[in-house]
Queue: 4 jobs
Job 1
Amino acid sequence: MTESRLRSAAKRQSELLALIRSASGGLLVAGLAGRFGVSLETLRRDLRSLETQGTITRAYGTVQANESGAFETALSERADSNVAEKERIAEAVVARLGEAQTLYIDEGFNPSLVAKKLPEDRQLTVVTPSLPIAMILVGKPNIKPIILGGRVRSNTLGVVDEWASEMLSRLTIDLAILGANAVSIDRGMSTPDPAVAVIKRAAVQASIRRFFIGAHNKFGLASFVRFADISDFELLITGRELSVTRAKAFRGTGTSLLRV
């Protein structure tokens, strides 16, 4: 390939990645070739290149942007993605609370579904860094919400920074329910924002038991900042959309993984 063609391909791939990142949820691959005025073969080559770089994931004729240190989806976009799967995950969490009386519920859309489904016929104290989750819980009888103090991120309405981590360091929590932007056998749990990673790490350290919750498309990826190993978690809960092969690979490390 000539130098000019390489530059043209790099420019097209950059524009393609920007388009995929701007979309809410995934994009259909079939409609992208005409949009860029290239053949389907050329488009697929571009997508393979982006996938090799770790910036996108392709599945079932669709393509979706992976989160990284330079890119993170907004909470509103997450609310439109894999909703049925996330509902099932939330139900599975609530069914496995056991005797926990104090919970940590992470920021994010999937954790907010857990908050909505919490039983109201038992006393629970719930610590959260999420303003939306605090608002969900404040009107529930028998549930005492405690929100961490600190800087609020506009992207997710989650609380970060030193005050929040200091508060967590003083607590002992029965069960933490945590999400991540990416889950890897080799690189563990990770997130794009170092400030968020600090809070998640503090929650891991403050809790006796830990569940990871996340849709299938979080698995097999690595984001910018690692905050925990998969072995730190009692259980990983995801949807049955996660392939049997990938689930088997995670279980092969000794990790307990539930597909619902």
Job 2
Amino acid sequence: MDVKERVAHFKRATDRLKNEVGKIIVGQGEIVDGVVTALLAGGHALLEGVPGLGKTRLVRTLADALDLEFSRVQFTPDLMPSDITGTKVAIQDDAGHTVLDFQKGPIFANIVLADEINRATPRTQSAMLEAMQERSVTVGRQTYELAHPFFVLATQNPLEMDGTYPLPEAQLDRFLFKLHVTYPSADELHTILDRTTGWDAPKIEQVMDQQGVMELRHLAMDVPVARHVQDYAVRIVMATHPTHKEAPEIACRYIRIGASPRGAQAIIVASKVRAVLDGRFAVSAQDVRAVARPALRHRIIRNFEGEAEGVSTDSILDDILRVIKESG
């Protein structure tokens, strides 16, 4: 199978996946594209929005459309790290001796829904760090490898809501994308009501298995990136640093810490997936611009002035994308 046929197969497979998700999720096309992109890029996604917008339903629907092991963790203030990773329990072996046996927690799955992740304390949130970055879990002196693919899809409520804890910066940096889930339009709300207030519910078909996901991921990672396109992504990331010479005035004024190298990595791998989703086997500057906001919005830390004046990271990124041109 040549490159054109492989790219065409990629597009057909992902279109089928998005169509199955679209049977349940009305609208939110940008969010669905972002979640699928993160999955195929080998990253994780953080969905933020007020309760009732279908964040959890989106994740469950995606899991139903994929023949992958799925687990869900409902984060609450009293959740403990061992409730996620698992713990060692005392059992009797065949000889009657008491031994410690490791009982795996819900983190041992292909798709893990971390529901309302910012309802738990930072100590419990940090239990996800090793799994999200290293794809492994260490308990005591023993390290356990996680299955491939491993994809964390976390939902969180806006920090202004009661009973929420901000995620540590190190954990936010492990997410490939942060996606904002918005309210549906009036027409979309009518469609939601038509689909959810009767007896009949749409049936979701499984369209992809573990091997299929990994094959698509390998294809996406083979997509070449021209040097000038990569340079464009690098200059966007560098412009988020207030001391950099290309940083626009709004970045110098409102940013305390800019995006890490993981931000540049996220832009490039997500741009590769976006290119193949569009039926192309080459990354363009437009791909970089399209993924810059979800890849960087959670990696920028505003200073006191930026928080006090309510300047959003998206506003800062909009100005950076306006100032930084495709050719340096």
Job 3
Amino acid sequence: MSVICIIPARGGSKGIPRKNLQEVGGIPLIDRAIQTVSNSAVADHIIVSTEDAEIASHATRLGATHVPRPIELATDEATSESVLLHALKALRVTAGDLLFVQTTTPLLYSSDLQHLVKNYAGCDSSLTVTESHGFLWRSTTDGSLTGVNHDPQKRLRRQDIDGAEYLENGAAYLMRIEGFTAAQHRFFGRIGCSIMPRSRSVEVDNMDDLLLVRLIDKALAERQQNN
């Protein structure tokens, strides 16, 4: 299977200034993403889509190909799908498989990508997830709360709930390029998944997330050294 990996990494960010260049374990987020994909050996080409010269420099230094992103696709309103479609068009890629990796789940391991590819057989699109056991509630129009994934009147123990629930962790997605360009969305056809542990599924959206990820990364590194 021919796989092209695209990593979107714009220069701006609302929650964290220059987020893609912030470090976890002493390594910028963009560098971590590129190195993780490279070490996994699941992609034939690694592409970084960015409008930022410094991020582009990091990408090319690590052996990735830079696709210049138009300013209109580097805003908060631009969708990831629009960025992916632009990069595919710029590269004139119309077939094969697309691996979409985000920098904002930096505790993604190369082995996670290998598992994603392994579990992709027979699927049209796939994603990384973590198991979820939470009881979700939603506000109603009268200001009360109602259960989303459970019946509050028939409260079950978690071990008694039929079927697993999964939380999308935003780390990586894999999809057939022809299907993606037709659907204009990352989810279509038969959708598969690859499960990551909850401890490594934290998405970095604000400074608290970044602090938490740094602490987890440090703890994981210390555990590995002690084993």
Job 4
Amino acid sequence: MTNSGPFRRMVVLGDSNSYGMCAHEPRNEWNQVLAYWLRRFQDEPLEVFNRGLPAEVISPRCPGYADSAKPSLMERYRRHCIDLDPDLVIVAQSLNDMRAGMPLQEYISDLKSIVADIQAQTDALVVMPGVYHQVHGRGVNDPALYPTWAKWSDLEAHAYNHAIGLLAAELGALYVDTRAVFAGADWVLHSDCCHLNDLGQALMGNAVFQVIATHCARIADKTLRIMEEEAVSILNTGGTDTDEEIRALWNEALDRFTIEFDDNLKK
């Protein structure tokens, strides 16, 4: 991984998932949830460039290209990402390609080309969420209504995610297993059975943040500095929404724990 934070310029690439479609409140779009947590835990300001394009596919060789929004990610990522000089890039581009029946080998080849070029041309950390939970046969995944976008099954979804995870490891990027996060819960989806509702968006944003925060040590710089400056410890924290009984019980034990705490600091 090239960049371990803090981050100042985040670019989000992908389709309607990245665009934030079907989030009722803009603040619940998953990229905004991610941005909120990054801003909260780092001192540096973060600028967000949402470059998700609804109905997009990864390249012209995707079977769904003719029915997709143009240009494809392959045709636009340089000006919508590299030219913005990001230090954090989220590439959430897989859903429509899988739904359109793009051969996995071709998809991974295109994704590798895009991510490797971003890494070569920028100092950005690249994060790659996999395909999230969908419901096949219903809503916009109904083959009778949307034949272009219903050429998939759970087996293809698992295969896509496995391949994305392996590619992320090969390239030194980060992978987010969003299917595992949603655990097959249909209620995180909009009624179209494809896009995420506010709850699903929040879960995804938190999942992407968790992966970044646990792999980028400098995200903790602000927290560690505050802990040292304000002498944060077990002796002066906690107790929100507690009651007087609990406070009294803790105060009775405080001296013993103070002695143990002081002894530990001296070791």
